[in-house]
Amino acid sequence: MSSANLDMSFAGNFCRKWSCRPFRRPKSCISQERNGIMLGKIKNCTSSVGYNGVPSTEISCAPNAAASQNELPPLVSALKASAEENAASFHFPGHNRGKAAPSSLTQLIGSKPFLHDLPELPELDNLFSPEGPILEAQKQAARLFGASETWFLVGGSTCGIQAAIMATCSPGDTLILPRNSHISAISSMVLSGTLPKYIVPEYDFNWDVAGGITPSQVHKAIKELEMEGRKAAAVLVVSPTYHGICSNLDEICEICHSHSIPVIVDEAHGAHLGFHLKLPSSSLSQGADLSVQSTHKVLCALTQSSMLHMQGNLVDRERISRSLQMLQSSSPNYLLLASLDAARAQISENREAIFYQTIDLALEAKSLISKIPGISVLEFPGFSSFFHIDPLRFTIGVWQLGLSGFEADDILCKDFGVVCELVGTKSFTLAFNLGTQRDHVLRLVAGVKHLSKTSHLHQPLKDEVKNVNHFACFDDVRMSMSPREAFFAEKRKVSIRDSLGEICGELVCPYPPGIPVLIPGEIITEKALSYLLEIRSKGAVITGAADCSLSSFLVCVT
């Protein structure tokens, strides 16, 4: 074939790709024609109704009765079509659609994922300026979750929380938040220059578990700021908590909105809420302005994939977009993005029944395990902030067996292959999801029965372990510098003994659950040090500290 003919034979297939960057609807439809899904002139599609019933000029790709039963979600379809092109790829990433993939990695995951590990090609849209399949995927997610707008996140819920706080709080503003918030909320205050107004959640002494925050606590915090001549820029609520405890968001949102204060909900553990009558209501249905959900935790997206949802007019959407563009990678992984689209579609296809089996298995497991001698099941802790609990989060107490949660977890993992999600001093927590099988439940029950039968082999928990209030380290939080000031201040290293009373210069956080105990700018207390040393001795991993042995700390030079 002559060079002229060669040029002509390929021109029709590939010139349209490289001449239309950024995304252009008319030219990007070709790769999706095979599936009957085109963004522009679309087969089996009609114009859609926009948010709040306003007619939209966009064309919806939502499947209708005439559409193929095998129709793929928009971003999944676009990624599949692009990967199937017979392309001569002179673009990133360097493995070149798997042709140069490391053999050790292909032995682990095969070669197919590399075909779909593509950059922001024109037909795949742009995460930060979406016009095509990403835009459509996010719109479909917004409709499913009840948002006016949804953003896909490839930096986990961490970047979603950071963006939400940066979009609502400016330097010097005050954010009301629980003292046991995730590390992402603390890093957000460093990034934004926001000042914290902490609420200390109620604490269940028997379980060594913190609850959510109450409407009365939020109201009190707002009033205290008003007496100081200040107004909260936003309120952050963690609901559900890692243990599945849900706050009364309906009342909290009503209180905040009466003061024109937006409510951000860290709903990382609750992307599934509202999709079954036995599940608690979602935060958006209760009035939250912003909700950040880890779609990978209970739903079926890939790890690190999350969503940020918005509704109402108290938050500037453009500021959210600008914040996300600063915080997220400029080279987002399209497998992560496509997994969000696929997880949304999976729920949409069978939203009324998809959680039936999972909930039944969780309730069955709780019923069987609650009858085992010496075992406690977290259902109704003794505090008022316990408004609701997620039935798919199951916390088992083992202190009556003379075991710590860390010891019980070690036995279950080594002897029964049961892997827990969260381990505490007195309990361990299990996360049920759509992939939970009956065999998993049977192994769990057998393992817990074994713990009970062999309890005579264990020494009773020491009184200082049984009776200590581990949440007491948050009782006397004193801030000498803002988190941002302390983060950038000059530091010096001192021994743990000499650190008492000094200003903490680092963020010290046991993980899981990722709740910081010492934050830059706070005075180091004996209670905080005692808790960190004890939980580390029980097997927790301490993150953030320059000295992971905790023999020394970084403190601020004043």
From TrEMBL:
Orn/Lys/Arg decarboxylases family 1 pyridoxal-P attachment site domain: residues covered: 73-372
Q: Does the record bear Amino-acid biosynthesis in its keywords?
A: no
The entry lists its GO molecular-function terms as: carboxy-lyase activity
Q: Does the keyword Lyase belong to this entry?
A: yes
Q: Which residues form a coiled coil?
A: none
The UniProt keyword set, sorted, is: Decarboxylase, Lyase, Pyridoxal phosphate
Question: Which co-factors does it depend on?
Answer: pyridoxal 5'-phosphate
Domain called Orn/Lys/Arg decarboxylase C-terminal: residue spans: 458-536
- Family assignment from sequence similarity: Belongs to the Orn/Lys/Arg decarboxylase class-I family.
Specify the protein name: Arginine decarboxylase isoform X2
Organism of origin is: Nicotiana tabacum (Common tobacco)
What would be the name of the gene that encodes this protein?
LOC107788016
